[in-house]
Design brief:
Blueprint lengths: L1 E7 L2 E6 L10 E11 L1 H7 L14 E2 L3 E9 L12 E4 L2 E2 L5 H4 L10 E2 L12 E4 L3 E3 L5 H5 L1 H13 L7 E5 L3 H12 L3 E6 L2 H9 L3 E4 L3 H12 L6 E4 L4 H10 L5 E4 L11 H7 L2 E4 L5 H13 L1 H5 L4 E4 L3 H10 L7 E4 L3
Parallel strand pairs: 11-12, 11-14, 12-13, 14-15, 15-16, 17-18
Antiparallel strand pairs: 1-2, 1-4, 3-5, 3-9, 3-18, 5-6, 6-10, 7-8
Length: 345
């Protein structure tokens, strides 16, 4: 079967690999129809993932935002799973033994394995995985179904931020994750302000009912965001960029006793005045992967917002052009919202 294999830093090739064969007990085989590409894929290809995040384990078939149809169901699988059923793939495998797993935070497992990072992912014609990883999904298109994974990160961010109806929430970054955070927060009837460098990206946030600000100067953005939120500032601020200036702005924007939620990944360091944390007594919360219940919530969000989520997909390529697709996505950050690689074309 055809697979796109990341052989090393900056090197993705097409090659033939053995078909996975018949699934074992508790396993299914999926034909990936659509695979979304995201920032963590860029970091993997560039060799920039930290060892804690999985490092760069070459060679690897990437692709952790996966939707497809089941082609075979092994024995001992749950009854709802059937051949030809469309599913979204939850990419996390936790060990079940470490401290995070023991305290109910398996999404931060010290020994976790992610499909597409530690295990071969969706950029191949067949993918064998455990029945726990697949969630039936009703979506008009496999590309939309593949968005369940980025939406699941947004669900986790909103859960970590403990966002309540009517609360004012500032989201820095209007890329795919920031847009998904906006969507999930709006579904919780929060008031949302989205900040981004690109005015074109903010239009979709506005259609979700969010207020928007174009990023200019950090001090100006902080002042405008706090004016929008009212005299106390917003109780929740979420960074979906990983850019040091935005992370610092998040800390400065959020209200005293508020929740600052870090979603965006990067290897950058951020200079923050320590007094900002102690004087405000902030909850500074990181977001990793999601748990299975949050992935199920994300599937429901996708099903309710099919047409809107489809608009996040800006470019599509067939599997045969996966190397070019990855190169294009990494080389055109202002033009790309979400690149999807199709296995069904």
């Amino acid at each position: 079967m055809l697979a796109a294999v990341t052989e090393g830093v900056g090197k993705v090739t097409l090659s033939q690999r053995p078909d996975p064969g018949s699934p074992g007990p508790g396993q299914v085989v999926v034909r990936p129809e659509a695979v979304g590409i995201c920032g963590s894929d860029y970091h993997f290809i560039s060799g920039e993932l930290s060892e804690q995040a999985g490092g760069s384990q070459f060679p690897r078939v990437q692709g952790h935002e996966v939707a497809g149809t089941i082609t075979a169901v092994g024995p001992e699988c749950r009854a709802e799973l059937a051949v030809d059923q469309r599913v979204a793939v939850w990419p996390l495998h936790a060990c079940g033994r470490c401290y995070p797993c023991r305290v109910g935070r398996a999404n931060t497992c010290d020994n976790f394995k992610l499909i597409g990072i530690h295990l071969d992912g969706g950029l191949q014609e067949r993918l064998a995985t455990g029945q726990e990883q697949v969630f039936p999904i009703r979506a008009s298109d496999a590309g939309v179904a593949a968005m369940a994974e980025p939406v699941s990160i947004a669900v986790r961010a909103v859960e970590r931020g403990r966002i309540e109806p009517g609360e004012r929430v500032v989201v820095l970054g209007a890329g795919p994750i920031g847009q998904c955070v906006c969507l999930v927060a709006r579904e919780r009837v929060a008031e949302v302000l989205v900040i981004d460098l690109q005015p074109s990206r903010l239009r979709l946030s506005e259609e979700m009912g969010a207020a928007t600000i174009v990023w200019s100067d950090r001090d100006q953005v902080v002042a405008e965001a706090r004016r929008w939120a009212g005299p106390d500032g917003p109780p929740v601020a979420i960074d979906a960029t990983g850019a040091p200036a935005a992370v610092r702005a998040m800390i400065e924007i959020v209200a005293s006793a508020g929740r600052a939620v870090q979603v965006g990944m990067s290897g950058e360091e951020v200079s923050v005045r320590i007094g900002s944390l102690t004087e405000k007594e902030l909850d500074v919360l990181g977001v990793s992967c999601c748990g299975s219940s949050e992935f199920a919530q994300a599937v429901a969000v996708v099903e309710r917002n099919d047409a809107l989520i489809a608009r996040l997909i800006s470019h599509q390529f067939p599997l045969e052009q996966a190397p070019q697709a990855l190169q294009f996505a990494m080389g055109n950050p202002t033009e790309v919202m979400k690149v999807v690689i199709r296995g069904d074309q």
